[in-house]
Amino acid sequence: MSFPDSVFFYEGLAFESGYSLVAGVDEAGRGSLAGPVVAAAAIIPKEYMADKFWDKVRDSKQMSAAARQRAFAFIVDHAIPVSIGVVSQGYIDVHNILNASLEAMRRAIASLSIQPDFILVDGIQAVPISIPQRCIKKGDQASKSISAASVLAKVYRDRIMDAYHRIYPCYHFNKNKGYGTRQHLDALKTHGPAPVHRLTFKGVIQV
Q1: Are 73 and 7 in contact (CB under 8 A)?
Q2: Number of folded domains in the chain?
Q3: Model confidence at 113, in pLDDT bands (50, 70, 90)?
Q4: Closest CA to 15 of 37, 47, 53, 60
Q5: What are phi and psi of 64, to 5 degrees?
Q6: Dist. CA 136–CA 10, nearest whole Å
Q7: What CA–CA distances, in Å, run from 159 to 112, 143, 153, 166?
Q8: Is residue 154 a contact partner of residue 68, using CB atoms and an 8 Å limit?
Q9: Least confident residue range of 77-91, 112-126, 164-178
Q10: Burial of 90 (0-12, 13-18, 19+ CB in 10 A)
Q11: What are phi and psi of 77, to 5 degrees?
Q12: How many alpha carbons fall within 13 Å on the CB side of residue 183?
């Protein structure tokens, strides 16, 4: 395939530089008031890059919930391997959200059954791991490997928050996924924080 005009442009640049296993990595839940931050890593083999379904995979925030679910299943089948890194709200409160997000991404990469020789990272902060990498601002819109990781992380984290909703239904985590909606903030004022809330975050600490 022709990488200069491809949706895998940044992956192609890495291949041209001599790398062969390129992983995309992204996180979800950074701005949430509750629950973990979740990162995902995905390596998309060259032989799967020509599939037209990749045109439907983009930054998870730009996709509907149903589209993310379809993409999640496709990515798991066509990105080999994939992995998830989860960092708890307790870790976030101790180490801050930036360090927790980078740690989640490090865990996701380290958990890949095949280690990449190059990483494409969403954002401007390098992951603390000794693998060559390129940080891409708005990378989840510029790299399909990062977009794939974005979808994986978002869907996996949403499922965690849906499970928390069943334990703490008054916060409506199934709808807000832990983010500071008016309904969520009102519930915090009424009930106080749950064990899964990030106690150092504005909106929680003020309760």
Answers
A1: no
A2: 1
A3: very high
A4: 47
A5: -75, 165
A6: 9
A7: 21, 25, 10, 11
A8: yes
A9: 77-91
A10: middle
A11: -80, -25
A12: 11
- Reported in sequence order, the residue ranges of the chain that DSSP labels E, i.e. its strands, are 22-28, 37-43, 82-87, 118-122, 133-136
The amino acid at 129: I
The single-letter code of the amino acid at 58 is R
| Residue range of the domain that includes 135 | 3-158
The 3 state secondary structure assigned to 86-138 is EECHHHHHHHCHHHHHHHHHHHHHHCCCCCCCEEEEECCCCCCCCCCEEEECC
Tens of pLDDT, residues 183-205 = 999 999 999 999 999 999 998 98
Question: Rounded to two decimals, what is the model's pTM?
Answer: 0.94
CA separation for the pair 85, 195 (Å, rounded): 20
CATH number at residue 154: 3.30.420.10
Q: Is 115 within the bounds of a domain?
A: yes
- pLDDT category, 207, cuts 50, 70, 90? low
Q: What is the C-alpha separation between 120 and 104, in angstroms, rounded?
A: 15
- pLDDT tens-digit map of 40-52: 999 999 888 888 8
Question: What is the spatial order of strands in the sheet that 37-43 belongs to?
Answer: 82-87, 37-43, 22-28, 118-122, 133-136
